[in-house]
Each structure stands twice: as C-alpha cells, then as structure tokens.
Predict the 3D structure of the following.
Amino acid sequence: MTSLSRAFTLIVEFVNSNRIQPEFHIHSVAELTNEEYDVPKNWETFEKFAGVYCFFDQAAERTKYIGMSQKDTGDRLFHWLFPKGESKSKVQEAVEDSDLVVSIVLKTDNHMAPALESFLIGKLKPELNSKR
C-alpha cells in the first residue's frame, strides 16, 4: 500500500468516526506554482478554507509533510511553496514540482483540522514534521 493510499484510508476512518464532511483535492506542486497550469483555479479549491494538507513524493510512496490551518489553508501552503529570502526550511528545500499535495478541506468543520492533522502525523510519521 502506498503512503497516499494509506493516508486516504486513515482520512476516511477519521471522517467516518467524527462525522465530518471534507472535500478532497490532489494537485502536483507544479499545478499550484507553475504558470502553464490554471494556478488560480487550482488554489480556489482550498485557499480560503480550513483544512489539512499533505505533501507526498511523486510516486506517493513517502509522506513528506503534513500541516493544517483552521481558516486559510492557502496561506499556509503559500509559505511552503513560495519561500521568501535566501534561507529555506527543510520542508521548502524538500518540496519538488512533481510532489503531490493533498488538501482536505473542512468548510463546515474547521475545528477538526488540528485533530485530523495530529491523527495523520501520528499514523503516517511524515519525514519532515518536527518531533515534539
């Protein structure tokens, strides 16, 4: 089972046990950053909503990073995809155009974003999430 398919199995488990109604979107990093794609339309799917986002490598074998926002997932993703300044974080350095970004939009259940993020980090153990 790939990391991506395991993630979706876990997300469905969480959604069913908590009776929330998410939307799912999958984009490549290039679809969110490269002008040859319809970047504004792709960002509209998650940008101004609460949710959780997950970075996977192109083969969907590795979970790189999981994050969340309780009000504006686009703002959080923008930070990782368009770094400012010369020094980049580990996440920013690891993100590649071919990586997959799964966004789980929680329009009516924004309060569940931290719980879903924590649940997925605990189960998937992403490479770049800090150990606390």
In short: Residues 3-18 form the longest helix (16 residues). The mean pLDDT is 94. The chain is about 40% helix and 20% strand. The beta strands are 23-28, 51-56, 63-69, 100-105.
